[in-house]
Design goal:
Strand order of the largest sheet: 8-7-4-3-2-1-11-10-9
Structural class: alpha/beta
Mean pLDDT: 90
Shape: globular
Largest sheet: 9 strands, parallel
Number of strands: 11
Number of helices: 10
Length: 293
């Protein structure tokens, strides 16, 4: 039996999406509710830069439907420590901020390392050894995103398997494309969307990605996120991949109800937005995103 495939984007608040994805006039406060009813997962970039209170995670969980999942980017300081003691302090600090308030909506945790960090067996054995397999009795799925050299070796994959972790498959020409089969879950970050394509990718590429993750789903839960690239196209890319997989959420009617309710009460705002040229608006960041992350 195939495992579930969850598809989403990085973040949920990005001003160009007000033109390319969100219904006209939908308030910022309703965007998470809307996107979580059109997709099945989201990667939270904001946790890479800042800490949050337990109430924030609880509110995210309450806002989203059953089955929706949040993948969290671990804080950037947690993956630059050199001693095992400092690694543990930073990891515990990130995990202790209240992320388990997400409960069963907590998806993979992405521990992203800088490109300057090359593979060193002792270093990564130390890091993996301080990652707990559960927190507050909630299972944790730890995924390492590495961007340096020397990782595509059996020793690295063996360490991941030993510690119950995996490596992020990052599809971008700048980073190594690493695939680990020794885990019960897989994480993909797809970073090559194009502004010239309505769905971010040519249809043949959407088909290729669908075949790729479907193959993984024979033995692993799969989490696929469209990030970076032409970010304004990423929601369309996620929707296209979902449609190709035949695994769209069961809550689109709820999303349309949110849109209809807002449209009915904000016609002037919608008309104003429709008249405003998209190019005149500065492109703000996706929630928590800076540069190509």
């Amino acid at each position: 039996m195939a495992h579930p495939i969850r598809v989403g984007v990085g973040g949920w608040s990005f001003e160009p999406w007000d033109e390319t994805f969100y219904p006209s006039g939908l308030s910022k406060s309703k965007q998470l509710a809307y996107i979580s009813r059109k997709m099945t997962a989201v990667e939270v970039n904001a946790t890479y830069y800042s800490s949050f209170k337990p109430g924030s995670f609880a509110k995210w969980a309450e806002t989203t439907p059953d089955g929706f999942v949040f993948s969290l980017k671990a804080h950037r300081f947690s993956t630059v420590r050199n001693t095992r003691e400092d690694m543990k302090k930073s990891v515990d600090l990130f995990l202790g901020q209240g992320i388990t308030e997400l409960k069963d909506k907590l998806g993979p945790i992405n521990w992203q390392f800088p490109a300057t960090r090359k593979f060193d067996a002792e270093y990564f054995n130390n890091f993996l050894s301080v990652l707990p397999k559960e927190k507050d009795k909630l299972p944790l799925r730890n995924a390492l995103e590495v961007r340096g050299s020397g990782f595509d070796v059996p020793e690295f994959y063996d360490l991941l398997t030993k510690h119950g972790a995996t490596v992020v498959y990052a599809e971008d020409d700048e980073f190594p494309k690493l695939r680990h089969e020794g885990s019960n879950f897989a994480v993909a970050r797809l970073m090559q969307s194009q502004s010239s394509k309505a769905a971010g990718y040519p249809s043949a590429e959407i088909g290729r990605l669908a075949k790729l993750v479907s193959g993984w789903a024979k033995s692993q839960d799969v989490f696929a996120f469209f990030t970076s690239g032409a970010k304004e196209r990423n929601p369309a890319a996620a929707m296209a991949l979902q449609a190709k997989l035949g695994g769209s959420p069961k809550t689109p009617a709820e999303a349309e109800a949110l849109a209809a309710a807002k449209a009915g009460s904000s016609k002037p705002a919608a008309a104003k937005a429709a008249k405003r040229p998209a190019a005149a608006k500065p492109q703000k960041k996706v929630v928590g995103a800076r540069k190509k992350k």
